[in-house]
Amino acid sequence: MFWRTKNPYAPAGKHCYVTGGTQGLGKALAISLVKQGAHVTIVARDADRGEAAAKELQALGKSTQIIQFISADLSSADESDRALRDALVPHQGLAPEYTFLCAGFAQPKYFVEYTKEEIQSTMSGNYLTSAYTAHSLLSLLITQHRHGRLTFVSSFAGLTSYAGYSTYSPSKFAVRGLADALRSEMQLHDGIRVHLFVPCGILSEGYEREIKTTPGITRKIEEADTPLVPEKCAAALELGLKKGHYQITDNVLTDIVRLRTNGGVPSNNFIFDLFFLFLSTFAVPIWRMMCDSTVRAARKTIHQEYAQRGFFQGSGTGSAV
User: Fold this and answer.
1) 168 catalytic, yes or no?
2) Which residue among 103, 134, 180, 223 is least enclosed by CB atoms within 10 Å?
């Protein structure tokens, strides 16, 4: 807990590199950073959307702020390297002080309904986009003897999972695993800090696309979860950075699950975390039983849907195992 007192969160005048910065959490965060006086680089694949977002950010900032957009496919290692190199040109080639890995997407479905290509693209779009940029950034920070903060964005579904997230959750668990490992490893180097943000649902264009494929079971499990607007999520993230938290959340439910599955990483607040850990001993098993009950209750309906689509072979029910 004591390592938090060094390098306070102060983005004003610093270079902030935001992947996925053209929509949702990434864009809301970029807007907040510009308003605080930071130099901001946003990175995304869509050039038209990116240029429009950059103009919006430039209108909010001052003429002395460096605000730029770089188009890149961050699921490519070469493109990730190129994007970061391009971002450093107006910054004398120096690594950014703050990096936020917000790029990612979800396409909830039942596992057998995914194509092999969709399984691969989800892992690439969520894990590799983060891993490649993190590798490029940390290599620079270490070789240049620079201080910097790297923030990964996982998800509530990166702490626990249930029906509908069989490709998304593994990719976000992978992001969490990488962040946990790097949090430990970067203690080898002075002034490099790693954070992990685990938000719940975020109201964004990505969320609107996501709900088009979300199974009814998944919606039922999540019906008590009210997605937050991106601005509130960005505020929760920055508050956690100011407090020096490693695992940063945006609601109490995530805190309860976080303590049940935190993997031995540093606590946020010893007293509160002890309370949430005690609460999780009862709350998480009850929540899990409710999730499982919801899934089992839909079994007949799902089987009927699969039968109508000709998914099953023959009419047998299979052997019990």
Assistant:
1) yes
2) 223
